[in-house]
Amino acid sequence: MDGSLAPSGYSLLPALVTIVLAFATRQVVASLFAGILTGAVVLYGQTGDLNDLNPISRFLLPAIGSTGYASILLLYLWCLGGLVGLWNRTGGARHFAEEVGARLARGPRSSLFFAWLIGIVFHQGGTVSTVLAGTTVKPVTDRHRVSHEELAYVVDSTASPVATVIPFNAWPGYVATLVVGTIPLLPDMDAGFDLFRRATLFNFYAFFALTGTLLLALNLLPWVGGRMQAARQRARETGELNAPTAEPLLPDAPEPDYDHHYRPHLVDFLVPIGLLLGIGILPYFIWGSYRINEAFLSATLSAMLVARIRGLPLSEIMEAFVDGCRSMTIGAIVLGLAVTLGAVAKELQTAAFLIATVGSAIPAWLLPALLTFLCMGIAFSTGTSWGTYAVVFPVAVPLAASLSGDPTYLALCFGAVLGGAVFGDQCSPISDTTILSSMFTGCDLMDHVQSQLPLALAAALLACAASTAVALLLPL
């Protein structure tokens, strides 16, 4: 397909089939593949080309052979999987959680606050935050009878939202490349960065999500939804951290070996984490660029080096690394299918169809809320906030500028896109962030989705109300 085919309502079918089956059957792998197969049928109906009817050659192989999936597989899954495997063997992450968490965590409330705090500290967004936060705090929250649904929500609801509020990560640079040149006010990257920073003040979904998560952690949120309340009550009263029907993507890690051969130390955790965060953040201030790939690789290699220097045999280091990678197999399959479904959505122009249905004949005060809802739908259907940004920002920015020349209004619409896409990415069962949040907190994927969705929807509705109120106050 060369993009000449007009987008249609049929482009929504792959995502709808996947999401409906995921909720109905709780079988994510089968649901994802069914969505991909549906996409092949839809494409064949448009082109009549039998080659388009083969989902393997048409979608799956190109998607998993892409640089993007190779980066996910080799760096996010293998490097982090190997790093987690090493921490399981050395006890590095657990030792850090015990040393630091013990000073903060005295019960379910304080341990969940510790999880929220770690989510804010690891503010790189998406896969980075979910894996690091989940791995670090799970031993602490498990000890204090915090359900995995609660922990998965705290981890997921701080990962991407905080990355759009604290702009010291890869998000501003990516978004700036999408909006440069779309209007005269954005002639270069510096202008794009500046707009991103100003828009963070109007990213109401992120603020409501982070605040709501904090209130839930402190047990101050007046309403948490039926499923989350049931999970909380089950864990506190029975100690069962997962529902009886749960099937976590990643089984609980084995207890680290604290025998005389190797005693865990804070350096086992702090050196890799320091390199990961340092290499991921400092180049931005020095050169204005990011080195995320180098950060992951350095963290894994440094964990191996520290373990070897401190006496762990090389054979055990490699065994731990391989065990960590092996534990990621199901996750790699799920993420590969999710990436493929994203390629299906792009091929069928799902986002273009959704944007076209909104139209431009709308009042200026209503546009921020509509952009939020539009991005919520696209990101939920495609499982990606960055993909949503790629198709919405080039349209939303000129549209907002055509309705009003007020720079504050432009920032308001910009923030609406930022927040709406994060909601969909956070809540969609086909999103890598959602998948990894459940994976590294030991939670069943659909239990995580269904328990956090009411809370996220409440934050999204509050965000739409807030953006509408601000728009009504502006001199449009």
Distance between the termini: 41 Å
Please outline the major beta sheet: none
Q: Structural class, please?
A: mainly alpha
**How many helices?**
22
Number of strands: 0
Assembly level: single chain
Q: Using the alpha-carbon principal axes, give the shape.
A: globular
Low-confidence parts lasting 5 or more residues at pLDDT below 50? Answer: 256-260
Share of helix, binned: over 70%
Cα-based radius of gyration, to the nearest Å: 22 Å
What's the mean pLDDT score? 85
Element string (H = helix, E = strand)? HHHHHHHHHHHHHHHHHHHHHH
Number of domains: 1
Percent in strands: under 5%
Characteristics:
476 residues; mainly alpha; 22 helices; globular
Element layout with pairings:
Elements: H1 13-25, H2 28-47, H3 55-64, H4 67-90, H5 92-104, H6 108-121, H7 126-143, H8 148-163, H9 171-179, H10 189-199, H11 204-217, H12 226-238, H13 267-287, H14 292-309, H15 314-326, H16 329-347, H17 350-358, H18 367-382, H19 385-403, H20 407-427, H21 432-440, H22 445-473
Helix pairs in contact: 1-2, 2-3, 2-16, 3-16, 4-14, 4-15, 4-16, 5-7, 5-13, 6-7, 6-8, 6-11, 7-8, 7-21, 8-11, 8-20, 8-21, 8-22, 9-10, 9-19, 10-20, 11-22, 12-22, 13-14, 16-21, 17-18, 18-19, 18-20, 18-22, 19-20, 20-22
